[in-house]
Write a sequence for this structure.
């Protein structure tokens, strides 16, 4: 298993990384920090904490794509990032509505958001987001 310490070391050793896939990792609170990182996939990282997500958004200034779908431990991370364009939050079943409200208030560059299968009225965000942002609240299977 990939440890948080190993992930932190990877980011320190490889400062030019632009995309990282840590899908199904067991990291909880690794320091994810990179000035060059634009794409980060953390889908199904079941131990990922609110603090780790908040911190990575603070420490990855050029991040434009973040996938934390199926990260069921997320409750109320602080989503604030000036350049984030795409975020996938589907199946984050413990995510609170207040966290998503913060996302729309504090991420001015958002263009695509998936929040399907969260436990609150997600359609509200479709109605109130900026016209240039697409919000997906369900999937047609």
């Amino acid at each position: 298993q990939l440890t948080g310490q190993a992930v932190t070391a990877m980011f320190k050793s490889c400062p030019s990384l632009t995309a990282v896939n840590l899908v199904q990792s067991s990291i909880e609170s690794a320091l994810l920090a990179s000035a060059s990182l634009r794409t980060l996939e953390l889908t199904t990282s079941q131990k990922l904490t609110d603090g780790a997500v908040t911190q990575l958004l603070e420490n990855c200034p050029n991040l434009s794509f973040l996938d934390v779908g199926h990260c069921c431990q997320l409750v109320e991370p602080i989503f604030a990032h000036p350049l984030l364009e795409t975020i996938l939050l589907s199946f984050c079943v413990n995510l609170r509505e207040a966290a998503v409200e913060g996302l729309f208030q504090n991420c001015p560059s958002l263009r695509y958001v998936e929040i399907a299968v969260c436990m609150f009225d997600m359609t509200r965000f479709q109605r109130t987001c900026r016209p240039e942002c697409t919000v997906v609240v369900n999937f047609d299977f």
